[in-house]
Write a structure and sequence with these properties.
This is ATPase. The chain is mostly helical. It has two helices and no strands. The two termini are about 35 Å apart.
């Protein structure tokens, strides 16, 4: 199975993508700056607005007709 990276964030024009886990980031921060509090559930207002726009577009889009099936003799 091939996975594609599809930007869902249409509000944030920076389009930042990171290929590290939060745990890896936390470890690096602790190593350089000591203990800190990591918030794993952020507000993410821009991302949530993007999801709302995608859903709104999906609801407005006309649904495609079902494909026609032909019998082969």
């Amino acid at each position: 199975m091939t996975r594609r990276l599809v930007p869902q964030d249409r509000i944030n024009e920076r389009k930042e993508f990171f290929r590290v886990t939060l745990d890896e980031i936390a470890e690096a921060v602790r190593n350089h700056h000591g203990e800190f509090e990591l918030t794993r559930v952020a507000e993410a207002a821009e991302y949530r607005k993007s999801l709302a726009l995608i859903e709104e577009e999906r609801q407005k889009a006309p649904s495609a007709p079902p494909p026609q099936v032909r019998a082969v003799a």
